[in-house]
Amino acid sequence: ILGESESIPSTLASKEKPLVGIIMGSDSDLPVMSVGADILKKFGVPFELTIVSAHRTPHRMSQYAIEAAKRGIKCIIAGAGGAAHLPGMVAAMTPLPVIGVPVKGSVLDGVDSLHSIVQMPRGIPVATVAINNSTNAALLAIRILGAFDYKWLDKMSQYLNTMEEEVLGKAEVLED
Ligand code: RP5
What we know:
α1 runs parallel beside α5 (about 135-145), α2 crosses α3 (about 85-90) and α5 packs across α6 (about 150-175). It is globular and about 60 Å long. It has six helices and five strands. It is an alpha/beta fold. The protein has one domain: Rossmann fold, CATH 3.40.50.1970. The chain has a five-stranded parallel sheet, with helices on both faces. 5-O-phosphono-beta-D-ribofuranose (RP5) binds near residues 28 and 103.
């Protein structure tokens, strides 16, 4: 079911068996979601990226959600805009952790997406990041992987150290 979409550059997906699945409701979400994909690439996390729409391709969505764990996916990042039901629907059909990225549409500034994703009724959790913040979705996915493989925790610690050094460097410049 994961044939390459014509609208998605194949370079965005890794050759290794993916651990993280990035899905999005439309190719119009790609500019937002590819930022998170780049983070996974930088960390060396094998991932896949494809379009799965809850309302336009409901059968593909259920197949994706049902088969993800069996295929070795450990965490799903789902981005969607508007009445953003994709992350919640996928979470309802898989025991895997699902991280939702509210994508800002042309109206309502993305608050519609945010509320749709963050307001999941009890029983089906979706970890929700800030509007358009696929960076944090990717970082959270890496932390989840790190709970089972210290390799990712080490990389995350290095990332945090580098970030701290960068900010301290800027602070020093201001103090001079
Ligand atoms: C959602 O509708 C998608 O996630 C996208 O954010 C939004 C608009 O989709 P397009 O009309 O641009 O395809 O399903």
